[in-house]
Amino acid sequence: MPKMKTKKSAAKRFRVRGSGSVKRAHAFKRHILTKRTTKNKRQLRGTTEVHASDVVSVKAMLPYA
């Protein structure tokens, strides 16, 4: 059986923590930020956890994470 390949697009977007949870960056923070409030932009900083219903899909794309 050949080795499973990692989906590189997912590897760039997600990180699996030691506990097994998956972290991701917030969306809507790339461009056209002039119309967004400072509070909104500040709250989009940092990372958050992937929703429980999506964790199985993400882990399938990252077989060795």
TrEMBL record:
GO terms for molecular function: structural constituent of ribosome. Keywords: Ribonucleoprotein, Ribosomal protein. The keyword Ribonucleoprotein applies. SUPFAM superfamilies: L35p-like. PROSITE patterns: RIBOSOMAL_L35. GO terms for biological process: translation. The keyword Ribonucleoprotein applies. Residues 1-16 have a biased composition (Basic residues). Residues 1-25 are annotated as: Disordered. GO terms for cellular component: cytosolic large ribosomal subunit. Belongs to the bacterial ribosomal protein bL35 family. HAMAP family: Ribosomal_bL35. This is Large ribosomal subunit protein bL35. It comes from Zeimonas arvi. The gene is rpmI.
